[in-house]
Amino acid sequence: MSDSGPNSTRVAACAACLVLAFAGAPAGAQKPWLPEKAVEISANCAPGCGPDRTARLLQKLWQENRVIGVPVTAGNRVGGGGAVLYSYLNQRTDGHAVAIASGSLVTNNIVGRGPHFGELTPLARLFGEYITVAVKAASPVKNGREVIEILKKDPQALSVGIATSLGNANHQGVASALKIAGIDVRKARNVVFQSGALAITALLGGHVDLVPGSVSLLLPRVLEGSVRLVAVAAPQRLPGGMAEVPTWREQGVNAVVSNWRGVVGPRGMSAEQIAFWEGALVKATATEEWKEAGRKLLLSDEFLGSADFRRYLDEQYAEVKALLAALELAR
User: Fold this and answer.
1) Per 3-state DSSP, what percentage of the chain is helix, strand, and coil (rounded to 5)?
2) Considering 92, 125, 131, 302, which has the largest number of Cβ atoms within 10 A of its Cβ?
3) Which residues pair with 121 in a beta bridge?
4) Domains parsed from the chain with CATH numbers
5) Which residues on adjacent β-strands are paired with residue 76?
6) In angstroms, rounded to a whole number, what is the distance separating the alpha carbons of residues 164 and 232?
7) By the 8 A CB rule, do 305 and 12 touch?
């Protein structure tokens, strides 16, 4: 049996936390960093959004399992594509504040709407949520391969409903596959909506032909029979209600797009502070309640500790910038 995968990564991250916490300290002379006052975990969107739900679940698990020995609050700091939250975070330089981050941390900077991740301290990637592509149940389009074939003949033959901005992970879930297939993505007919719900309403009304979105957004519509999923931008097929949906890879294009979620802290955090937060996140994500929430939403357990998360962000930045440059969205 291979020793690689989410569990071994989680164990390695926890071991790294301990090494960092005690590195260079004489035996018995130095204690690991611990918070001395209330800590805060924040999201850059309104209460009830995905990052907010993640923040509040972590808050609950930390408190109920006594992972953090001080009070934990969850907050919302909305605006500027995350700039408001990250500006606030960097004013809290004592290690007592962290924030939920997602793919928008990379995308927003590339399009000129937010800070570079290097202005923050990556602490851990928590999970991946892959982007899938929906058509109306009665659509003549049967699969992702047909989408490619149709758009190769005419890049404007199908309209795409994007929530909530061009260049984001939803947009990438279609555009990356088209670009790899040799289609001029600049010519695609995109319609931007203010929410995923509005994009789905337009799809059901016949106003757009395709809607890319997260599994958790589209799966309920699949189960009720109003939409079909023609592709998922995952490395392999997802389980449960998504098991019948082919990946883009299976359909001839190596497109993988995840609206991952992670946790970041202020710039310049010490090794001891990073070790503390890594350890707290390892413990929370190892609980059965966290795992059950992930299974329910078909989230992929892809935990990465701080160092690996930073390397992942470097890779993501290069890949996403190349795609957004092709879309003429990079600044």
Assistant:
1) 45, 20, 35
2) 131
3) 265
4) 7-23+31-127+260-326 (3.40.190.150), 131-251 (3.40.190.10)
5) 43
6) 19
7) yes
